[in-house]
Every structure is written in C-alpha cells, then in structure tokens.
Design goal:
Layout: H1 2-32, E1 40-44, H2 51-67, E2 71-75, H3 82-89, E3 97-102, H4 103-112, H5 120-123, E4 124-133, E5 135-140, H6 148-157, E6 163-166, H7 172-184, E7 189-192, H8 196-205, E8 210-214, H9 215-224, E9 227-232, E10 259-266, H10 271-285, H11 288-296, E11 300-305, H12 306-327
C-alpha cells in the first residue's frame, strides 16, 4: 500500500514537472525566437512625398531586403511630427515598430515645447543617423548681394529691413535664420509661409529678401539663375551646390544648423535587436546606389551610430533651448 502510494506520488510529480516544462517552453521559445519573423512597421511622422518620406522609403526598401521581411511605411503626419513620434515611442518594444524622422522630432520639439508627450532621450532607443539635409541661405538674384558679407552689411545698415521666410515659429528655417542673425550681429524680420514653394515665389517676386531652405528645394532656382545661394547652413558642403561655402568657412560657425534624419526604436527594445538594426543599417548605408539616390535628392548620406546620435540630441536640445530663450521663440 505504501509502495503504491509512493509510486503514485512520484508519477504525479513527474506529470506536474512535464506539464510545467510544457507551459514554460512557449515562453522560452518566444524569448529566444529569431527576429524578425513578420513585417516591420516604420513610422514616418510626415505625409508621403516629403524629404523624410523619401529617406524612409529608400532605407526601408533596403532594410527589408537585408532582413528578408517587409518594411511597411506608416505615415502619421500632424502636430509638427508629435503624433507619429509619440506613437512610435509608445509602441511595443519588440522590434516591429520603428521610427524614421528628422531633427524636428529628436531635438527641435524637445527644445522648444514645454509640454511634449515623449522625451526622445528617455523614450527612444537611438539606432543611427542616416542622412543630413543641408540648408542654404538664398537671396533673389535681383539683389546686389553676391556674398554673405554684403547681406550682413545691408542688414546692419537698416536693422529689421531684411525679411526672411519661415514655415512658422520654431520651424527649421526660423531657427536657422535666428542663428544666422545672432552669429552675424544683425536684426532680421521673419515672415511665415506654408512651405518651400510659397516662400520661393515670395523671394523671387521681391516680397522678402532672404530665405533659408533645403538645398533640394531651392537648387533648381539657383541653377536657373532666379535665386543666388550665399552659404550652406550646415557643417559640410552640399553635393547639389558644391561651389557654395559653409557658414563655418565664412567664419560664422555659430550660424551652423544641420537638418538630419535618423532611425530609432521604442525604449526597452531588446539590445540584440537594436544591435542587429545598427549592423544592417550600417551595411545598407554603404551601398553606392543608395548614396547616389540620396545625393540626387539633395541629401548627404551618413552612418552615425547610437553614441554619436545621442550626443547630437543632447547638444542640439541644449543649443536650441538657449536660442529660443535669447530670441524669444515661443511654441505651444
């Protein structure tokens, strides 16, 4: 009797152990499962057709080829990129939702907005900066200004007489214009427009005297002779306008403003997934065809890893926050 009870107890314990092992097996398989095994969503907080969307589609296509899984572009524009960026920051950290956005999401909004539903330094895992989008300072070819020094002299002679285009308070052209004004010691007057096409028309018609816009947007007008480029508002020269010097070369390093695009993931995304993304992105950014594609669109391909990416965010947030305070830029 005692022996049969003992056998029964051992059998029951064995059955429980098998059942427990079976219940744990799926969890262990999930933890150790390969990534990716299904499509990846790449959130772009801009509408289709813009610079960010073009970069996302170019990078996403090659990332899909390398990962052997579809990369689906999810355009979520609105609220100065806040809607899409916040959705990415709050997504499940499983590697199946990523963000590709510009510096507006990563540094400009955090610097200028006191109420933001996400913190890029806390809520996003940086993967890589993949491209820079140089801005250029342009004037109408009807103006006598042939170099930056001429423009500065005119602005100093009549403070506030030089009007320049922005896309609203806190936009990249607004910040770039204010940085230029502070570096040059001049007073400029900002005028808001809805976008590049409208501001270019205003500049060519004489409605305003100056604009700071992407090289891709204004290069055709510069090459046609309707606008004159005076300086690249970035750290390096632009492939589409190789003869135009940078602000650093023009002895105005404090006027440098770099636009850029970067890939990130929600915080707490497993480090092996982030590392795999970094390796694959580094490899695809070395593709000459992709580099040529980006340059033809007025962008400069780069491959800056997570440490440099995070450092850029920290430095730019601090710099733009100080600029907003000095220039009284208020964005709600």
């Amino acid at each position: 009797m005692h022996l049969s009870r003992r056998r029964f107890a051992l059998s029951a314990a064995s059955a429980l152990a098998v059942a427990a092992g079976a219940s744990l097996a799926p969890a262990a398989a999930r933890a150790d499962s390969p990534w990716p095994v299904r499509p990846i969503k790449l959130i772009v907080p801009f509408p289709p057709g813009g610079g960010t969307d073009l970069v996302a589609r170019a990078v996403g296509q090659r990332l899909a080829e390398r990962l052997q899984q579809p990369v689906v572009i999810d355009n979520r524009p609105g609220a100065s990129t806040i809607i899409g960026t916040d959705a990415a920051a709050k997504a499940a950290p499983d590697g199946y939702t990523l963000l590709l956005s510009g510096s507006t999401s990563y540094t400009v909004n955090p610097a200028l907005r006191s109420k933001l539903p996400y913190d890029p330094l806390r809520d996003l895992a940086p993967v890589m900066v993949v491209a820079r989008t140089p801005l250029v300072l342009v004037v109408s070819s009807d103006k006598p200004w042939r170099q930056v020094g001429d423009l500065i002299a005119a602005a100093k002679a009549r403070p506030g007489s030089v009007h320049y285009a922005t896309f609203g308070p806190g936009s990249a052209p607004h910040l770039a214009g204010e940085l230029f004004a502070l570096a040059a010691g001049v007073q400029l007057q900002d005028v808001p427009y809805k976008g590049s096409a409208q501001s270019a028309m205003a500049l060519m018609s004489g409605e305003i005297e100056m604009a700071v816009d992407t090289v891709a947007s204004v290069a055709p007008h510069v090459k046609s002779g309707r606008l004159r480029a005076l300086g690249i508002v970035g750290t390096t020269r632009a492939s589409l306008l190789p003869g135009i010097p940078t602000m650093g070369e023009l002895q105005l390093p404090d006027a440098v403003f770099d636009g850029w695009y970067a890939l990130s993931a929600p915080r707490n995304t497993p480090q092996p997934i982030v590392d795999r993304l970094a390796r694959e992105t580094t490899a695809l950014m070395a593709d000459p065809a992709l580099q040529a594609q980006l340059r033809n669109q007025g962008m400069e391909p780069v491959a800056l890893g997570a440490p440099a990416f995070r450092q850029m965010m920290e430095q730019e947030i601090s710099r733009y926050r100080a600029l907003a305070h000095r220039a009284a830029i208020a964005v709600e």
